[in-house]
């Protein structure tokens, strides 16, 4: 990671904090500079005291105190601003990442490379710290650079003085100066080589450790889940889990090897750095004995030499950590800067009180990214306005995939989907999805109050909430809860209430009713119910949708008898179409499935 890249990272992370970059500059310069200002003035005061000019010395002391105080105050104020920005940067970046996830096309979020990148970020945070730690390291690195620049300027001044003044033999000074330059060049070369080697080794170790970190994280969270608690006890898996944890921990011992590798190289470099410091002291002693510098200047240049050595050592240690951490954290930037949609339209959705939204698939084929097998093949179907349509078929027939394409979770591999005759990709995505109120089989409820779950917001419309609760037939359930609609769900917040599977499904249905969108989709959210209960939920829900277009997906043929049209999918293709009586009369796939299920439930 170059200096330019570090600075670009600071600028990227300071989004929303316009003065953060300025305070970084002021803080690092003042933080590095006040020690040198103090050294310069202190050397001057010492030389003045030697000649017993006390009035002048007092004057210089006042200047030194005021100058150093101003620089220290500026550095302290800058650090306060920078620390405040750094502390909130983790939150800000995670907020931006969450917003990105919510606005990014589902197909992109679901990709393995995206999930892998975010997993690496989490692993990097666990092992080396997050964004705030990285920014603090870069800030300190910049401070060391400024200190090194100041130290180098002092030493260059010393060398120039030694070359053109005093009683020292010019040839001797020239030889000593060349040796000093060579020594410093060697240090610079070794520093770069060692930093590069350590960076490579650290990255190699990190790659090896990503899987172990991920598995250990999974196990520690899994052990405390409700499902795990039951299965671990019923199948006596405690020894198995403990042994898995031990194996993962053993695999992490590669860091001992890395620590040894790093320690040896840093130790060698440290010894060389101390030899350089010793040589600089000898150099200054020779210069001082030749009368080239004053007593005060000897102390000043000695302080500069010590600071330079310490700064170079500090830079090397920080650089390796920064490069190592950046390998993980840079995925945040790549993720946030990636395009949200493969095709982002701009057309607004026409707001219609009559809900006249007609959707159609035209020769649509689809296969998931990275797969060769088509899930849907040349599907053409029109969803007529106000029609009740059932999608039925065996697992893997393509029912849910068709719905995901309809709502732009994925883009068709071939063909197009239209809304009122226009390709849906040309519409603004957020406006387009606003016309759908889906209830999926794997619906998610949050461990927050029921009213917020239904509204999907902190701001709840009480009139719409009451109507949705009534229509979803969960009034009796909610009335029995301790805080009624304000009762928290789940057990992760310490005071939540658990609901049965059927009750959770009704809350999910109430959420769809609350949205009051013109296009309703029910994708097997009642799979946990028995066939009779499921049919009742579907038929009751059908009465509530009014003139809305609705799609019902179910494995149970009997649940969809009330629909205007039933579409049977088989092997990714539309195999049959018609209403319940027509399809039974055809004696095809639908009839076979229906009769088999009816025989099973009446046996």
Mean pLDDT: 77
The end-to-end distance, rounded to whole angstroms, is 71 Å
Helix count equals 20
SSE succession: HHHHHHHHHHHEEEHEEHEHHHHEHEEEHH
Structural class: alpha/beta
Shape call: elongated
Rg from alpha-carbon coordinates: 36 Å
> Regions with pLDDT < 50 over 5+ consecutive residues?
none
Give the strand order, joined by hyphens, for the main sheet. 6-7-8-3-9-10
Q: How would you classify the quaternary structure?
A: single chain
Number of strand segments: 10
What's the CATH superfamily of the largest domain, by name?
Answer: ABC transporter type 1, transmembrane domain
Number of domains: 3
CATH architecture of the largest domain: Up-down Bundle
Major beta-sheet overview? 6 strands, mixed
The name CATH uses for the topology of the largest domain is ABC transporter transmembrane region fold
Helical proportion? 55-70%
